[in-house]
Amino acid sequence: MTTKLVSCVILDLDGTLLNTDGVVDKVLKIVLSNYGKEWDGREALKIVGKTPFESAADVVQDYGLPCSTTEFISQISPLFYDQWCNIKELPGANRLIKHLKSHDVPMALASNSPRESIEAKLSYHDGWKSSFSVIIGGDEVRTGKPSPEMFLEAARRLNVEPSSCLVIEDSLPGITAGKAAEMEVVVVPSLRKQSHLYSAADMVISSLLDLQLEKWGLPPFEDWVEGTLPLDRWYIGGPIVKGFGRGSKALGIPTANLSPEGYSDLLAEHPAGVYFGWAGLSTRGVFKMVMSIGWNPYFNNKEKTIEPWLLHDFNEDFYGEELRLLIVGYIRPEANFPTLESLIAKIHEDRRVAERALDIPLYSSYKNDSYLRSSHE
Ligand code: ADP
Ligand code: RBF
Ligand code: MG
């Protein structure tokens, strides 16, 4: 893959820096139920990245609502406004903004949302607004994305050539706009399994954690430690259930599965990929752990799962026991492999990376976290 060198970055907001999907779901569910309709999310792909008017028009038409698009917008707007404070930052978003800012890389924000909504959303995220030299909303140009207009205007205001800009986007209208502006475009898709839609982008990555800025001549992230990226720690636990029955059999790598019930929000929040940390088993102790989160492309699972491999020889099963995980870092995105052997070899490499990293004080200190050892109800 050849990439051009750039000097500036232009970012999209919703779906790229902010996890707006949950809020969109919530609001549309409420308003459609007032019409006796059920929001089923099927529209998500169609409306992602569009202007608010186009998105609303799609929903009105596809659900056959007895109102005009303008009326519909006036019904959803106040609900959206109340939700801006609830939108979470996507993994790696804050890290990216802080990094570019600290290296004086000029940044613009270009979103199809109206300027007023952008300002409201940004106000809940410390230090974000002041990091952008330029902010452009959908109501500040004649035509929103997929027109290149707002990206070209952003370059003009940054005082650089369009070809010196890297666009970071999550949706098809954004990619189209970026390429029409003759910019470099990297896409972090918010919707999975649509990879054919993203072929126009110069690069597709699975989350902002995987962004390699040096590919465009920008200052590289310096926070990787021995092949691992330290994360804000997070916890998950529950009784071990039967998985797909192939970890030990097909791979020689047993993975202790947790029931997906009750942790769908946590799963949605964390990008697919390989993570590591510590695992506590109530009667056995605390062990090093490496795990995958995702759909396991090699096996093409229907559901996103967590597959933790405890780095210890147990000589027996322990189904039903309470497992507590503390995740401290990230290793790589999930991938497909040409052969089972190459998948297995990669997972063993992940194991070595995790084992070594967990001896570094940065990560080893978490072994004593009380969550891993507390007695369980
Ligand atoms: P399943 O499809 O049910 O997850 P696996 O073949 O992946 O089956 O085996 C996982 C089971 O193996 C775990 O639930 C646990 O009881 C047992 N086990 C034994 N050693 C380990 C280990 N080191 N890490 C994870 N699970 C292990
Ligand atoms: N499956 C994949 O299809 N792609 C991967 O990149 C991948 N990485 C993994 C990394 C680790 C550390 C572990 C424990 C598993 C990984 N697997 C991956 C999941 C493997 O397919 C899974 O454990 C089996 O499907 C057992 O259910
Ligand atoms: Mg398993």
Automatic annotation (TrEMBL):
Pathway(s): Cofactor biosynthesis; FMN biosynthesis; FMN from riboflavin (ATP route): step 1/1
Domain of life: Eukaryota
Domain Riboflavin kinase: 229-359
EC number: 2.7.1.26
Keywords recorded for this protein, A-Z: ATP-binding, Flavoprotein, FMN, Nucleotide-binding, Transferase
Pfam families tied to this protein: Flavokinase, HAD_2
Gene Ontology MF term list: ATP binding; riboflavin kinase activity
UniProt-listed GO biological process terms: FMN biosynthetic process; riboflavin biosynthetic process
Name of this protein: riboflavin kinase
Cited Gene3D superfamilies: HAD superfamily/HAD-like (3.40.50.1000), Putative phosphatase, domain 2 (1.10.150.240), Riboflavin kinase-like (2.40.30.30)
